[in-house]
Amino acid sequence: MSRSVAVVGGGVIGTAIAWQAARRGWRVRLHDPHFASGASWVAGGMLAPLSEGWPGEQDVLALGVASLDRWSDFGGTLESETGLELFTSSSSLTVALDSADAEDLRTIAEWVGEQGREMRVLNRAEVRELEPSLGRAVRLGLLAESERAVDNRLLVEALRRTAVTAGVEFADGPVHDLGALDADQVVLAAGTSSPKLWPGLPVRPVKGEILRLRTRPGATPPPGRTIRGTVHGRPSYLVPRADGIVVGATQYEAADTQVTVAGIRDLVADAEALMPAIGEYELHEATAGLRPATPDNLPLIGRLSEKVIVATGHGRNGILLTPVTADAVVALLEGSDLEDTRAADPGRFAGS
Ligand code: GLY
């Protein structure tokens, strides 16, 4: 008899775990009343642990890099099994619009270099040569050549298809009690809903609004890379897609998913400061999602009990951290653990 696992949560984290566990011979049932409708659907799809690095956050960087290193194989397998083209950019470029931002980029480059990873500082002319559509106010750039981006919605579809092929059963009834699930093991991967099923779990919603823009005939082409920058103190990014650009993202301590006028105003103004031609695009969609955040910006990946494993709290980095999380949970299911995710063990918080 094969062993059984119930995975609660059908975002990219839960579906990747379900897929990988089924490939290892587990009987898997994936529970979600609204498959992939949360943060995975809204996401930008950047894989950018170096560009988001900051001195003091060694564990966050190490975990992100461990997952980025897995992405080529992980994404390549999904692409070859489904025929979908997931990767939409091959590198990321963070730009500075003022001298304080330029200083921050040099700090990041130096610190990431000390952690053994290379980023290249580019002057204004080098930035403009790489990305001519960027604004004239750009004065410095930081290039992370290994930081790709993926189309999150194609990723959701690829994971769904490979999970089905691997034998994962999908259940759309709501789960109110983990103890009632008929399985040998349970994986809780329900994002911001996770604390409802395991009270005390330190996960809170951080709202983000995001825009999906489509190119129009004659419009300036999208940048070739993911473009990131800070405008008026707000982080802004442009992630290329086959048909346009994803512009992100606002960040508030809030639990609603309404798109606000102020959110759209800020996103458009900040994107325009990075790429003045953005106004030529069609505003196709504005969405809001809830990032499942933890107090220390590391996710929760580990055992909560002999039967329950948690994999949530990925904050801004759910898409990036999908491959390493799936590997870690499969290792836990099979009685071992993964060194790469030890810092994310939920035991670091009393009450988990
Ligand atoms: N992954 C970027 C964000 O959450 O805005």
TrEMBL record:
Pfam families: DAO. Transmembrane segments: none annotated. It is an enzyme of class 1 (oxidoreductase). Residues 5-331 form the FAD dependent oxidoreductase domain. Keywords: Oxidoreductase, Thiamine biosynthesis. One of its GO terms (biological process) is thiamine diphosphate biosynthetic process. It catalyses: glycine + O2 + H2O = glyoxylate + H2O2 + NH4(+). SUPFAM superfamilies: FAD-linked reductases, C-terminal domain, FAD/NAD(P)-binding domain. GO terms for cellular component: cytoplasm. Pathway: Cofactor biosynthesis; thiamine diphosphate biosynthesis. Its EC number is 1.4.3.19. GO terms for molecular function: flavin adenine dinucleotide binding; glycine oxidase activity. PANTHER family: GLYCINE OXIDASE, SARCOSINE DEHYDROGENASE-RELATED. This is glycine oxidase. It comes from Rhodococcus triatomae.
